[in-house]
Amino acid sequence: MARGPAHVNALFETAIQRRVPFLLGTLAVALLLVTGMALAPDLLSGILFAVALLLYLGLVATATAALNYHPRRLIERPGELATVDSPGPVLIAAGVTFLATGLVADDVGDWLGGDEVTPFDIVYTSAWPLLLALSWYTALGKFGVALRSDGIHERRPFGTLFVPWAALDPELAAEPGRLNLVTLRIRHPETVVRRGIRGTNATVRGATDAAYLAGVINSAVTTRAAHH
């Protein structure tokens, strides 16, 4: 039992650091399994289906566990401190890859076999590649929170947020909340810049533990206020 979390964390780190090979490998395995199920005799096809199902369920279970992956650290990059990357989107994209590959291949196989193709079938089948592309975009993009000299930057898949340090309350700038959210106490909302689709200006979220991130933000704001 003691070795379990270490092995899980190692898997998470692999998914983060080698996300492109990880996803390409998942796609290759999914295509091989789908091809095998289509060409193999019934017994072997059933075994391959069971293997594909177990792999998919394993990815779903691991992705669920990744939702609780919140290390208490930040990554130092040139000019910024950034929250760690999350393995969740990578593992979710891998699961979507398995599911989309199987469902689309099954539908195309039915059409080639002479089944009637309805407009709903076309829309339904076309939606899966779009969902797959969205999941890969979310998995491969650089999203999260970065603390820079001018303020707090957050990048989400479809929106960004910039909060200058001077906009925050120096008494208590940030508080950790549920779902690993950090609530910012903003005194000057007119200086906050928000672009794209996102929720309130007052919350940011990264994979780094929310309490740890809030503590770093509070320390930064307090230090800047003392210097001024």
Fill in the keyword field for this structure.
alpha+beta; 2 domains; PH-domain like; 6 helices; three-stranded antiparallel beta sheet
Query: What general form does the structure show?
Result: elongated
Strand content is 15-25%
Secondary-structure-derived class: alpha+beta
- Runs in which pLDDT lies below 50 for 5 or more consecutive residues are none
Question: Could you characterize what this model shows?
Answer:
The protein has 228 residues and is α+β, with helices and mostly antiparallel strands. It has helices spanning 4-17, 19-39, 42-66, 88-112, 119-140, 210-227; strands spanning 74-77, 80-83, 144-148, 151-156, 159-164, 174-176, 181-184, 193-196, 203-205. The protein has a six-stranded antiparallel beta sheet, with no helix packed on it. Strand 1 and strand 2 form a beta hairpin. Helix 2 runs antiparallel to helix 3 and helix 2 runs parallel beside helix 4 (88-112). It starts with a helix and ends with a helix.
